[in-house]
Amino acid sequence: MKSGILRLAQIARKPRRRIVGLMSGTSLDGLDIALCSVRGAGLKTRVQVEAFRTVPYSEDFKRAIRQVFAQRTIDFQHLTLLNVRIAEVHAALTLDALQDWEVNPESVDLLASHGQTVFHAPRIFHGLPDWPNATLQIGDGDHLARRTGLITISDFRQKHLAAGGEGAPLALYGDYFLFSKPGEDRFLLNIGGIANYTYLPADGDPAKVMATDTGPGNTLLDAFTQDLFQLPFDEDGRLAASGVVLPGFLKKLHTAEFLQRPVPKTTGPETFSIAWAKSLLAICPKEDSGDPRNILSTLAQFTADSIADSIRRPPLLGSLATVFVSGGGACNPDLMQRIQIALPDYQVTTIDRLGIPAAAKEAVLFAVLANETVAGASAPNARLGGIPLVSMGKISLPDLP
After folding, report:
1. What does DSSP say about strands 16-24 and 110-121: parallel, antiparallel, or unpaired?
2. How far apart are CA 56 and CA 354, in angstroms?
3. Cis peptide before 264 (omega within 30 of 0)
4. Fewest 10 Å CB contacts: which of 129, 229, 231, 273?
5. pTM for the model
6. DSSP letter, residue 341
């Protein structure tokens, strides 16, 4: 234990830390692995992405996760086993990536693992006033550390809960450190399974920084593409682009209670599920449910509308800014075009313009959080987005000499 603590102290003092960030989102498409070179901490953080890849999950592995993902009733033994299995798979994929990149694991200082969200339950979602906000990510950090030989920082969301937050979105911390720019209002929009953004004010005031979920990102589009077309996702949004919007279905989708709540807020695929959308489609006029491409087109429009409506809502009303998009949705030209049309006074572009590959951003942000946990300066009175600016993540030490 003592050698591990000494190693952490040495890492904290280094001018540059090499950190691997891992992210597996609610879309369940695969593991994002980002090898990052990180200098400084806080607002002085600077990141260079040395290498990045997304490794698709096998269908068997995705099926195993879906057995517990966003399910109220599960096989508890399966959940327990999966906590270890996910760590084993992520460790193997990480070591394979380092080998392919010809990177010696001994040159890596930290492994930052988000884990796999299996259930998100803020109080506003579960509706039980005497019970707390909660969220659960699995893929145990000790198993990752043991199998990779790397000091592992994991389970980031629990400290945010303990400090009074909902455990999400966490992107505001990394966004604030990396992308704040004096004199320019910015929205950092990430479109994964669920879409969320961080608002960065031009004056840099941390009290004004805000992060919120907006609603569905890829979750409904992917679910219906799999259901209607037996494809994993709608590549480049081509199917949705070839359909037409169904007005009745779109109107029903916009009645979602989550969309009426004030920001900031969080949600998950538990709310925006295929069962929920199908129940709305079933009560629409028959002419609304013809060509399945029209269903995808309507869902794409709903996704774009919910993102745009959230960006325009108070307290941000009137803030004209650039929207920098990351996540899988940034690779969907049809969805990007719909968002730009819905936000005519904003410039909608990808995060690549800021030097971070769009697909890599979330993995990079968890590398930044790990860096802050180990090397960040203590700021007990600082708050960001109304939540104390706390270091996050639990430290797992491998067997060190």
Report:
1. parallel
2. 26
3. yes
4. 129
5. 0.85
6. H
* Amino acid, single-letter form, for residue 235: E
Place of tokens 């269908």: 59
CA distance 245 to 240: 9
Report the candidate in 323, 309, 146, 338 with the shortest Cα–Cα distance to residue 244: 338
Q: Which two tokens stand for residue 248?
A: 């009745």
Q: What angle do CA 219, 224, 228 make, to 5 degrees?
A: 160
Please list, in sequence order, all residues whose beta carbon lies within 8 angstroms of the beta carbon of residue 13, skipping any fewer than 6 positions away.
Answer: none
Ranges of the chain with pLDDT below 70: 1-2, 286-289, 314-320, 378-381, 385, 400-401
Residue range 341-353, pLDDT digits in tens: 999 989 999 999 9
Helix (H, G, I), strand (E, B) or coil at 185: coil
3-state secondary structure of 131: coil
User: Do you know the residue count of the chain?
Assistant: 401
Closest CA to 268 of 10, 32, 72, 9: 72
The set of residues, in sequence order, having a beta carbon less than 8 Å from that of 257 and lying 6+ positions away, is none
